């Protein structure tokens, strides 16, 4: 039960438990299981499977490290470089005998589903963040608006009263003028 030494760079990236699990999965799978001799030799199926397992393991590690709050995530994104995983295309991954088209499609659907779920979570975080950040600001603006509307109504009433007083004063002046002319 040992993989070929040619895969030592891939095996070094995986913990022992996943290496053992990969061996068991390759040698005891339902459809076209590999013999122990085939699995221990250089084989494109083994290579593509190990590459796939390394990528899955690294993604899982990245998800575990990504337990920051929304605000920490926003502030830290500009300072951190996001690591990239570069996979060399050895055409073993695109070989139809290794990865059937249905399996490729399933991975694509799974990726799309994960992206949509992450998008929903991020949009909810954004809504919560905006609500927390701008709620007091919006309440202050609404309060100021109501105060201004009330002050405006009060000033309008005062202006109307002053207009009435001016009209009454004009009438008095007109009546005084007419009384003095007689």
Describe the protein in words.
The chain is mainly α and 182 residues long. It has a domain at 5-98. Helix content is 73%, strand content 0%. It starts with 7 loop residues before the first helix and ends with a helix. The model has no long low-confidence stretch (mean pLDDT 81).
The major β-sheet equals: none
* Beta-strand content: under 5%
Query: Which structural class is indicated by helix and strand composition?
Result: mainly alpha
The portion of residues assigned to helices is over 70%
Shape: rod-shaped
The radius of gyration computed from the alpha-carbon positions, rounded to a whole number of angstroms, is: 38 Å
**Count the helices. How many?**
6
Which series of helices and strands comes N to C? HHHHHH
What is the rounded distance between the termini? Answer: 131 Å
Q: Count the E strands.
A: 0
Query: Mean pLDDT across all residues, rounded?
Result: 81
The unreliable regions are none
